[in-house]
Each structure stands twice: as C-alpha cells, then as structure tokens.
Amino acid sequence: MRIRRGTLWLAIAVATLLALSIVALLPRPVVIEAGTVRFGPLQVTEEDQAETRSHDRYVVAAPVAGRLLRVLLRDGDSVMTGQAVAALAPVPLSARERDEAAARVDAAAAAERGARAQLQHAIEDLAQARREDGRLRALVAQGLASIQALDQSRNAVVTLGMEVTAARNRATSADAELRGARAALAALSGARPADGTFLTVYSPAAGRVLRVLEPSERVIPAGTPILTIGDLAHLEVVMEMLSSQAVRVSPGMPALLLGWGGDQPLRARVRLVEPYGFTKISALGVEEKRTNVILDFVDPPGSLGDGYRVIARIITWSSPHVLQAPLSAIFRCGSDWCVFALEGGRARTRRVRIGHQSDESVEILSGLKDGDEVVKYPPNELADGARVSVQS
C-alpha cells in the first residue's frame, strides 16, 4: 500500500511538472489595444494653415518721384474715399528730362491742332455735300437729274457725317493727351499748384490703414508704396494647399476655422479655388506645387484683422451614418486591406474593403459588421490565430 501511494504521488508530481513545462513553453498572449467597429458620423477633411486678409486691399503708391513728407496716419486709422493721405514735393527735372517733357507737350499740341483742322475740314466737306444734295433733289424733281446721282449724293452725306464724328473723337482724344502732357510736365518739373500746396496723394477707397510702409520723410522714386488700405469689415481667408489636395476641394464646401484664439471654431465656406499653382519650398527644402483656396466667413470674424493666422479645415465629404473602424487597425496585406479581428481571445486576419477615411476612422464597405472588435496598432509579432490579451 505504501508503494502504491508513493508511486501515485510520484506520478502526480511528474504530471504537474510536465503540465507546467508545457504551459511555460507555450507562447505568451500578445498584449494589444482593441477598438470597436461602430456606425456613426464620418467627415473627410483637408486641413492646413491659413491667414486672413482684407477682401479689397489697396496699395497707395507715389505717382511721381519726389520728397515724401512725413505721413501723419498710423496703422489702424480710418480713412474715407478721396481723403488726403500723403503729400509729395516733386523732384525738379534735369535739363534733358525737362526738354523731353516739353517736347512731348509740343508734340501733343501739334497733334491737337492737326485733329482740330481735320475736324473743321470734315465739317466743311459735310456742308458742301448737303448743299449738293439739295440741288440734286430740285433737279430730280424737274426731271433734269437721275435717281442714281441722287442716291450717290445721299451716300456722300451719310459718309461725311460719319467722318465728322470720327474727326471730333480724334480731336477730343488729342485734347486729352495735351492736357495730360502739360499736367505731367507741371508735376515732374516741381511746379506747385496755385494755392502753394504740395502734390497730394488721396485714398482710393474707404477703410482702415493696414500698414504705413513709408512713415518718415525721405526722397522716394515713382511707384514706391506708401501705405496699404483695406476694409476689415470684409475679411476673407486664404489657404495655401498642395495642388494634390486642392483638386478635391470645390466652391461651396463648408469649412471650420480653428486656432484663431476664440473658444469655438468659426464657420466658413469655400468661395474660390484659384486656377493657377505656384512653387513653394517647404521647411524641409522640398519644392511643392501649391494653390490658393479662398474662404468666406459664415460666422462674424470677431476681432480678427488682416494677416491673422488660423487653421482652416475644409469638409470635403460627410455622412451621418457610416460603418467605420479605427484607422490605426487597417494595414496592407498584398494588394488588399486587412484587419485583425478578435475571436475567442485570438486575432484573426480579415480582408476588408474600405471607402472614405478621416484622420481617425475609415469607412468599412465589407468584411466587418457592427460591434466587431479589431486590433489597433497591431504589433509586428502579431500573426493570424495568435492569442492576445487586451490592454486595459
């Protein structure tokens, strides 16, 4: 009896050791993070940095070279249409430049006199044609002239009338060119108006001064920008997008403006995708083809100004009821897309067909159903049929 009992205990010990050895040699479950396949809303967006700008921005520049007086306006000041914003003392011309400007005035004056003479000549020709037409009418009534001659006379009256109109237009144009040449000579030669004031630069539109580019008094060449004027009541958002992303955007698409400093995002809408692209160097030194996408505010812009930074998120597609899985669960298996689905504590490979995708979720067209659990961020050691342990 003692031997049998000892043998029994020995057999139990051996079996226990064998079972422990088998358990020890078995692969440990892979610790994974699980996600659930659910129905819900899905949005596909294109997001990038953008900035605000005035819809109508005007750059006021110097019409002539001269000494710019100190600009008294400051950034943010309001201006009205036609308000004086700067004053210039034109630089006197050299002898050669003055002779050239005077020659242009003489040429314009000669052209104006020639146009007036041509107009007078055309008027006299028209008057003579009308007299001839009157005499032919009397002769035709008496039977002394043919109808063909009367038709030719009428045609001459109409034709010469049109020549008088053309000559009058040429005379008007020549007179305008003469006045412009004289005004340019007066401005460029430093001539002052009758009241003794400087050459005044006026605001082309009502708005606010966005930036004074030349605040100090100095000599500037013609065409130098002096200040920028814009209407902050009509702001828009310009977004530089990669051309490969911009082709998925069309006017009318809704958008959200984030990161502008407020608690809630602002609604906007795409107004225009500009038809031309430009090359820009990225921070990594890579040449990128980009294009501007223009958005209009739907919500009031609040305290935003010109050139403020925002993050624009354009919604290119959306649906309120889509079967979707975490984007991190999808991986390539050959030419197909696959996931690891959880079945009885094991990971099983499933081929799926996907549709639209956002930054976090992907639309599932086939291969999964509502409520299925899948492995998120599948590790490299995970294989089909492997035991898994879901991380809490």
Please describe the topology of this protein.
Elements: H1 2-25, E1 30-36, E2 38-54, E3 57-61, E4 66-68, E5 78-79, E6 84-90, H2 95-142, H3 147-188, E7 199-202, E8 207-212, E9 218-220, E10 225-230, E11 235-242, H4 243-246, E12 254-258, E13 266-273, E14 278-281, E15 287-297, E16 309-326, E17 331-333, E18 336-343, E19 346-357, E20 361-366, E21 373-376, E22 388-390
Parallel strand pairs: 1-22
Antiparallel strand pairs: 1-21, 2-11, 2-16, 3-10, 4-6, 4-9, 5-8, 6-7, 8-10, 11-15, 12-13, 12-16, 13-15, 14-15, 16-20, 17-18, 18-19, 19-20
Helix pairs in contact: 2-3
Description:
- The strands form four sheets. A six-stranded antiparallel barrel has the order 2-11-15-13-12-16. The protein has a four-stranded antiparallel β-sheet with strand order 3-10-8-5, with no helix packed on it.
- It has helices at 2-25, 95-142, 147-188, 243-246; strands at residues 30-36, 38-54, 57-61, 66-68, 78-79, 84-90, 199-202, 207-212, 218-220, 225-230, 235-242, 254-258, 266-273, 278-281, 287-297, 309-326, 331-333, 336-343, 346-357, 361-366, 373-376, 388-390.
- Helices cover 30% and strands 38% of the residues.
- It folds into four domains: 30-42 and 320-390, conserved putative lor/sdh protein from methanococcus maripaludis s2 fold (Beta Barrel); 46-54 and 232-318, Efflux pump adaptor protein, beta barrel domain (Elongation Factor Tu (Ef-tu), domain 3); 65-91 and 195-230, OB fold (Dihydrolipoamide Acetyltransferase, E2P) (Beta Barrel), CATH 2.40.50.100; 95-188.
- The relative contact order is 0.20.
- With 392 residues, the chain is α+β, with helices and mostly antiparallel strands.
- A hairpin with a 5-residue loop joins strand 14 and strand 15 (287-297).
